[in-house]
Design brief:
The complex is a heterodimer. By secondary structure, chain A is an all-beta fold. Helices cover 0% and strands 51% of the residues of chain A. In chain A, strands 2, 4, 5, 6, 9, 10 and 11 form a seven-stranded mixed β-sheet that branches. A four-stranded antiparallel β-sheet of chain A has the order 1-3-8-7, with no helix packed on it. Chain A is globular. The model of chain A has no long low-confidence stretch (mean pLDDT 95). In chain B, 0% of the residues lie in helices and 53% in strands. Chain B is mainly β. The radius of gyration of chain B is 14 Å and the shape is globular. In chain B, strands 2, 5, 6, 10, 11 and 12 form a six-stranded mixed β-sheet that branches. In chain B, strands 3-9-8-7 form a four-stranded antiparallel β-sheet, with no helix packed on it. A two-stranded antiparallel ribbon of chain B has the order 1-4. Chain B is built from no helices and twelve strands. Classes of the chains: A mainly beta, B mainly beta. The interface between A and B is medium-sized, with 27 and 24 residues.
């Protein structure tokens, strides 16, 4: 089944404790991206990647890092999480730059 | 700059009513793509439609229809004979054809359909 998976689905952590949210797709898509969803703000793009080793900032990249060492994986790294990064995070992939985005199930992160 | 406005924060209807969700966008690109996604209470994002800027034909898919008007920069979504299962948050999104994979979302419209 074609899908995008994210882990963990839920995470509660404390300020400053480094964490990684994994994202993996099995559709051989070149394009992947991360979004955060906050009430009243919709979804905002954090980072995107157009291929292995090619990444760029979205609209809200501060406090986040990403890497794309393999085509299928695009982890989101929070080196020193803060409470304002409490949010619902979605990973997405697509076949082309303008194509339909396939979204993962979401990761709900709470930073205390 | 790219922007998507969904002015309706929440809409409540009774089952079988028709409802239209508004989406207005801003872009300077001549080529761009518009999307609608549905987010049911379970939280996942469900793809509904993608439309490119050169295709202004309206689209109908079952009870769903979309009205794209470049002249007013709008891409409105109508549900005919709404059902309780249509209750969800609906997002309109814009992807400019800049060669970079940006996707700009509106803030969403929450639709509540009561029996």
């Amino acid at each position: 089944e074609a899908q995008v998976t994210q882990n963990p689905r839920y995470l509660i952590t404390v300020t400053g404790k480094k964490l990684t949210v994994t994202c993996s797709q099995n559709m051989n898509h070149e394009y992947m991206s991360w979004y955060r969803q906050d009430p009243g703000l919709g979804l905002r793009q954090i980072y995107y990647s157009m291929n292995v080793e090619v990444t760029d900032k979205g609209d809200v990249p501060e406090g986040y890092k990403v890497s794309r060492k393999e085509k299928r994986n695009f982890p989101l790294i929070l080196e020193s999480p803060s409470p304002n990064q409490t949010s619902l995070y979605f990973c997405a992939s697509s076949l082309s730059v303008e194509g339909r985005r396939f979204f993962g199930p979401g990761t709900r992160l709470t930073v205390l | 700059a790219q922007k998507v406005t969904q002015a309706q924060t929440e809409i409540s209807v009774v089952e079988k009513e028709d409802v239209t969700l508004d989406c207005v966008y801003e872009t300077r690109d001549t080529t761009y793509y518009l999307f609608w996604y549905k987010q049911p209470p379970s939280g996942e994002l469900v793809f509904l439609i993608r439309r490119n800027s050169f295709d202004e034909q309206n689209e109908i898919s079952g009870r769903y229809s979309w009205n794209f008007q470049k002249s007013t920069s709008s891409f409105n979504f109508t549900i005919t004979a709404s059902q309780v299962v249509d209750s969800a948050v609906y997002f309109c999104a814009l992807s400019p054809n800049t060669g970079f994979q940006k996707l700009v979302f509106g803030t969403g419209t929450r639709l509540l359909v009561s029996p």
